[in-house]
Amino acid sequence: MSNPVLDSWRRLRAATWARSLEFIRDKSAVGWNVIFPVLLVLGIGYVFSGPGQPMFKVGVLAPAGVALDAKLHPFLATPQVQFYREEAGDAALHKVQLQRIDMLLDFSASPGRYWVNEQSPKGKLLEQLMHGAGGAPLQRQATSGAEARYVDWVTPGVLGMNMMFGCLFGIGYVIVRYRKNGYLKRLNATPLRAFEFLLAQLLSRLLLVMAINSAVYTACRLLLHLRMEGSYWDLLLLATLAAFSMIALGLVVSARISSEELAGGILNVIGTPMVVMCGVFISIDGAPHFLQMAAQLLPLTHLLNGARAIMLDGAGLQQIAPNLLALAAMSAVYLVLGAALFKWRQD
Amino acid sequence: MPAVLEARDLVKHYARVRAVDGIGFAVQEGSCFGLLGPNGAGKSTTIEMLEGLLKPTSGQVLFRGAPLGGHYRERVGIQFQSTALQEHLTTSENLRFFSALYPRRRPLHELVALCRLEEFLDRDTSKLSGGQRQRLLLAIALVNQPEVLFLDEPTTGLDPQARRNFWDLVQGVKAQGKTIVLTTHYMEEAYLLCDHIVIVDHGKLIAQGSPAALLAEHFDDAVLELPAAEAGKLNNGMVYKQKGDTVEIHTPDIDKTIAGLQAVGASLAHLRIRPRTLEDLFLELTGRELRT
User: Fold this and answer.
1) Which end of chain A is more exposed for a tag (fewer CB within 10 A), N or C?
2) Stretch A194-215: mean pLDDT, rounded?
3) A182 contacts on B by Cβ (under 8 Å)
4) With respect to CATH, is domain B3-210 assigned 3.40.50.300?
């Protein structure tokens, strides 16, 4: 007498095993998934290991509704300096300490104040520019902190991007290929259920993506002496949840399509804006508000914000809880949608 | 004997096409049942409804007298006309994978022996020949000891040698008492393997019965084939038909016809005599060649 639960578990295990074997034996795909991000991170590390970036970036704390222009202070009209609004004083000050921004202005108090990092040459130069601009004098508040290297900041972005493309294409393309060549139709003729098949694809991809990215992260950490202020376990939890949500997003895309070209196009349409909007290579701190809000709807944003908080600021689970919750919610929505839309065969 | 499988007035519509138009028949336990017809006749649509993969627009499929239930897929085995397998997996890994999907499994060494897979058991399936691949797909269709085995045009695209090898395998499966439902447009295949056939055309059933009974019912003659060059001599009331390089004479009395041919001086050096075939039957019933 068969046991439905054991039968289901055996089918799930077999489908996960078969898909994993298929991927592992595809040497070109595995090689590409490992080598590409390492080369990218090494290249970026090399290019950005010299002097800092030329642009000045200044955070501004100001009452809501007050425009950041010369009326508030003449210094705000200085060219070649990007002024942008900061909401939280503590977080903004931390950015000055890490030299992710060059100065912080505070017009929410009277008299106005500003912070510079004593160890930042750019901060000192900006101070001279501010004095030259005139206007009401601002109180100097000194802070300090070693500069967070760009490579420390960008590595989570590159690994996250690699993970995102690996998840989206790794699942989306494969399922579309299976549907197109009739393999899904063959599986549909067996007792394998749709949710077992989808879960097997998801688990197989998750295990492989996490294994590959853990190896790549370890290589980058050793080669580039990456900064790590927080817990590896927290990082692993965040990355696993993020990979899960991005694979589930791939399931939604591949739920019905039978054309690899169409799937590739849609996956690119989803993936490429994420690279730009989620701050893979450059911070979106100074980006327009609506863009920052839209970025909150994308899983990569939560992965990168959480990973950088753990790696650069030493944040714990409590601090990254909003990112974890957002990723969990996205995973649930994508998974339900992907399973509901899924079709075994071409129309 | 009760039917294992029964189709009752099956209809399937696609947009503007009526692919299957009211087909009904019964498949007896332990028999090999053939579904014959040219490409586009509705064979594949019919067999997919029997397999439970396609829902009929109307009509019903019964398995052992009851509508197809949730466990139907555990009790039947299917070999599709063309099926991709997972890449980078060997023959034995594919067998093990499909075997794990079923609660009831046939020992793999039995399948390997039955379908003669020994020589390529550890070979990547992308490196199999067409015949080897069909043997593996047959083994996959048998992993769950199915009560009914569906074979959908299993020898299409195979060379004649591989096709004959495959027929041997099917006869081996049949000898074990398995019920087989086969679709094909090879009449020789149907004649050799099937106990009962139905012929479909334009989605409708046009004839059914055992191959021998159908031929006996529709024909009482044989066919004499001569080279087309002899056609000019056949003017003494003989009924003949030219097909390519050959002239076919249909006759109920072979001796008398041969005597007639000798009388008009026709050369009998290349004379061939053959019985009526299912190809002839299809032509008789539809007025069309089977593979046009």
Assistant:
1) N
2) 92
3) 80, 82-84
4) yes
Sort residue B116 into left (φ over 0), alpha (ψ -120 to 50) or beta.
left
Q: Give A83-92 pLDDT, tens digit per residue.
A: 888 887 788 8
DSSP letter (8 states) at residue A1: -
Give burial (CB, 10 Å; 0-12/13-18/19+) of B4: buried
**Rounded Cα gap, residues B139 and B161, in angstroms:** 19
- A190, A193, A260, best to mutate vs chain B, most B CBs in 10 Å: A190
The C-alpha atoms of residue A151 and residue A227 are separated, in whole angstroms, by 9
Distance CA B79, CA B76 (A): 10
Give the closest residue to B194 by CA, choosing from B278, B291, B78. B278
Query: Which of A50-59, A212-221, A304-313, B100-109 shows the lowest per-residue confidence on average (mean pLDDT)?
Result: A50-59
Yes or no: say if A84 and A59 are a contact pair by the CB < 8 Å rule: yes
The verdict on a CB contact (< 8 Å) between B53 and A188 is: yes
Low-confidence residues in chain B, pLDDT < 50: 292
User: Which distant-in-sequence residues (6+ apart) come within 8 Å of A221 by Cβ?
Assistant: A228
**For residue A347, what pLDDT is reported?**
66
- pTM score, two decimals? 0.77
Instruction: Please report where in the chains the tokens 């087989």 appear, as a residue.
Output: B180
Q: What is the mean pLDDT of residues A165-182?
A: 89
